[in-house]
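Bug #77: duplicate submission created two jobs. Keeping one. Sequence:
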Amino acid sequence: MATVTLVLIGLALVFGLYMAWSIGANDVANAMGTSVGSGALTLKRAVILAAIMEFAGAFFIGPNVSETIRKGIFDPQIFASEPGMLVLGMLASLLAAAVWLQLASYFGWPVSTTHSIVGALVGFGIAYGGWSAIEWGNVSFIVASWFVSPLLAGAISFCVFWFVLWQIFHRPDPVKSAKQVTPYMVFVVMLVMMLVLSLKGLKPFWNDNFGLKPTDSLPLCTGLGVALLAGIVGFAVSRHLVRKVGGDGEMRSTQIKDQYVSRAINKAIMHLQRVESTADGEIQQRAIVMLGQAEHLRDEVATRSEPDGEQSAFGSVERIFIYLQIISACFVALAHGANDVANAIGPLSVAVDTARTMQIPDKATVPLWALGLGSVGIVLGLATWGWRVMQTVGQRITELTPSRGFCAEFAAALTILLASVCKLPISTTHTLVGAVLGVGLARGIRALNLNTVRDIGISWMVTIPVGAGLTVVFFHLLRLIFSQWLPSSPDIQSMATVIGLPLA
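Kept job's structure:
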C-alpha cells in the first residue's frame, strides 16, 4: 500500500508541475503579450520581467490554503467512502487541463486556465457521481465570464483609447499635451494597479493570515491608503521625468491638417453608410460610389496621419507610453502569479493530502515546496512556449503601439478591479483579449484580424467541454490501473516520513 501511495504522490507532483508549466506557456503570456507586440519590450526582456513578477506573486503572496474543490463544482463528501477516487480525480483533472493548455499554446490560442481546470473538475464529477453531482449553478456563473470579461474590458479599453486620442494625439502639439496629461494618467494607473494587487493579488494573503476578504474594511482601507500614496509618488516622479522628453521638432502643418481631415472623412463615411442603408434606387447607387471614394480617400490620408510612432512628435509620445505599459504589465503579472498559481497547486495539494491520509480534507494545506514547484513550473512554461501566445495577443489580433498596448493593459486591470469589487465572474485571459479587441475596434473593424478573433472565440467555447472530456478518459484509465490497490477506509498511515517531504 505504501508503494501505491508513493506512486500517487509522485504522479501528483509530476502532473502539478506539468499544469504549472502549461499555465506559464498560455496564461502568463497574456500579461506581457501586448508589451511585446507593441515593441515596448523585446521577447527576452518580457520573459525575464514576467518570470520575476509571476514568481514573486506565486511564491511570496500565493495561497497557503486551497479549497478542496475549487469554485464549488461538486460536494467533496461524495467521496467519503472512496477517498482514493478523489486522488485519482485530481490527478486526471490536472493532466487533462495541462494537456488542453499545451494544445492551445501550440496553436497560440489564449485560453483561460481557470476554465480549463473547472472543465476538468466538471468531467471528473460527472464521471464519478453523474450529472446530478455537479453544482450547475456555480458552473453557469463561471461560464458567464465568457461574456462579462471581454465585453466589459473591450468597452473600457475603447473608451480609454479614445480619451488618449482626444487628449493627446488629436491635439496640435501631441508632445506638449502628453507632458500635461501623463502625470495625471500615472496617478490613476498607480491607484488602479495597487488596488488590483490588493483586491486580487493579495486575496490569498488576507484570507490565509487574517481570515479576511479583500473587500473587508481593514484590507480595503489599507489597500486604498497605499494606492493613494503610490499614485501621489508616481505623479511627482512622472511630472519630473516627462519634462526631459522632447518632440524632435514641430510637426509639419500638413500632418496636423491631415489629422483633422481624417476625422472629418470618417464622419462623412458614417453619414454615407446611413444613406446607403436607408435609400434605394439611383440615390442608393450614387451613395455607394461616393462611399467607396470616401473610404479610398480615408486610407490615403491615414497613411500619413495615423499615430503609428513613425512621425517624430508621435514617436516622442509613444516613448512616454512605453514606461506606462511596462508598469501596468508588471502589476498584472504580479497579481496573476499570486492568484492563478492555485489552478496548479490547488488540485496538487488536495491529491497529496488525500493520498497521505485517505480522508477528505476540508482545506488542503499548501506547503512551501508546492508553491515553489508551481512558481518554477510557471516560469519554465513562459520561457519555453510563452512566445506562441504572446504573438497572438500582441500581433495577430490587431496592430499595437505602446499607447494602444497601454490602453489595453490598463483597461484589463481596471476591469479586474471593478469585477473584484462587484463580485462579477471574470477571466484574466478573456479580459486581456477583450481589451485588445476594444483598442482595435476603436480604429475600425478592419483593424481587427477577424480570423484570429474567430479562432480565439472557438477555443474559449470548447475549453470546458474539452477539459471535461479529457478528464473522463484519464480518470477511467487511472481508475482501471489503481482502483484495486486503493483502500476505502481511513486506515492508511501518512507517507510524509516515507517520501521525506515537509508536507505539513
